[in-house]
Here is the input.
Amino acid sequence: MMGTFLFIGGPEIFIILLVVVMFFGADKIPDIARGLGKGMSQIKNATNDIKKEINESAKDQGIDTDLAKDINKEISEVKDNIDDMTGPIKRL
Here is the structure.
C-alpha cells in the first residue's frame, strides 16, 4: 500500500508519463509544469484569503474560532483525570 498513490502504482505512473511525453513532447513539459505550479499557487492563495475572511467575520460576530486550543485543553483534562484515577500505578 506504501507504493501506491490514489491506487496508481509505479508501472501506471510510468505509462502516464510516457504518454505525456509522446503527446506534448519533452520541450513543452517544463512549461506545463510551470503553469500547473502557478495554478496551484493561485488556488492556495485563494483558499488562504477565504479562510482569512471567514476568521475575520467570525471574530467580528464574536464566534470562537480557536477550536484546536479547546480540544487540546479537553485532552489535557482527560489525561489529568486518568492520572488521578490510576494514582500510584506506574507503567513499566
About this structure: The chain has a mean pLDDT of 82.
